[in-house]
Design brief:
The complex is a heterodimer of chains A (142) and B (104).
Chain A: E1 3-11, H1 16-28, H2 35-56, E2 63-71, E3 74-81, H3 89-93, H4 109-116, E4 119-125, E5 129-137
Antiparallel strand pairs in A: 1-2, 2-3, 3-5, 4-5
Helix pairs in contact in A: 1-2, 2-4
Chain B: E1 4-8, E2 11-15, E3 19-20, H1 22-37, E4 43-47, E5 53-54, H2 56-71, E6 76-79, H3 83-92, E7 98-100
Parallel strand pairs in B: 2-4, 3-5, 4-6, 6-7
Antiparallel strand pairs in B: 1-2
Classes of the chains: A alpha+beta (142), B alpha/beta (104).
Chain lengths: 142, 104
């Protein structure tokens, strides 16, 4: 089985959202993904990293870790923060629910992650942080 | 990331940059807010001609502007929608509150 891994860690600044999704997309170009697959992956990385910055660290300083593992044509993306954690994960995952309506959050973040990836798992403990793990099978290009 | 604002009568046209995420959405919100406070802006047109990426933060930003102009009896329009942005707008149900000028 072919495997390849990468890991980046960066400060929880909104400027880094673009850096994170672009870096992941570039790493995955070795799988020759379709434009749609790449767009989907950029979106989900952006959603999870933005969640860490806004909700996990509430715009305070912290570190966000993004890990990507390739196993043949299956990819796993793991996004970790050490922020406040999520009290009620199933509530947070409900479409249109947001804990921060005053910040004009649409509540669509987890809905996009679910729609664009094959699997989504959210582990969180209050006061310790959150780990979002997403999996997707990349189609073989004809 | 730059955006361009252009005002014609009571309509504000916002030409968005290549990527609209949380970082950019915060700036766009501020700039449009200044324009609305100056008065006379009722309708907003978001021009996505240069935009290839938008996430849920962009959706939230447009929903916020919708609430603002809705109070003034105004509307939100979009134009220049490519494949990627269309997917996001459809999935989020945003077409219920915004009108696509290119399809009108």
């Amino acid at each position: 089985m072919y495997t390849n891994e990468m890991k980046i860690e960066f400060d929880s600044k909104s400027e880094n959202e673009g850096f994170a999704r672009t870096t992941v997309a570039v790493f995955l170009t070795q799988l020759d993904p379709t434009l749609e697959e790449l767009a989907d992956i950029k979106t989900v990385v952006s959603e999870a990293v933005t969640n860490s910055i806004i909700h996990g660290y509430e715009n305070k300083e912290g570190k966000v870790v993004v890990e990507v593992r390739i196993e043949d044509r299956d990819i796993t993306i793991k996004i970790t923060d050490y922020g406040v954690g999520i009290e009620d994960i199933s509530k947070a995952r409900e479409p249109l629910y947001t804990s921060k309506p005053e910040l004009e959050r649409s509540g669509m973040g987890f809905a996009f992650m679910e729609a664009f990836m094959d699997e989504l798992d959210v582990q969180s403990s209050v006061g310790a942080g959150t780990v979002v793990t997403m999996k997707k099978h990349m189609e073989q290009r004809k | 990331m730059e955006i361009k604002l252009e005002k014609t009568g009571n309509t504000l046209k916002v030409l968005l940059g290549q990527e609209v995420d949380h970082h950019v959405a915060t700036q766009v919100k501020e700039q449009i807010g200044n324009q609305i406070q100056c008065g006379k802006t009722k309708h907003i047109i978001f021009d996505f001609s240069h935009t290839t990426f938008m996430d849920s933060s962009g959706i939230g930003m447009i929903m916020g502007r919708y609430q603002e102009v809705n109070r003034l009896g105004g509307k939100i329009y979009v134009t220049g929608i490519g494949k990627e942005i269309n997917r996001i707008l459809e999935l989020s149900g945003l077409y219920k509150i915004v009108t696509n000028l290119d399809k009108a």
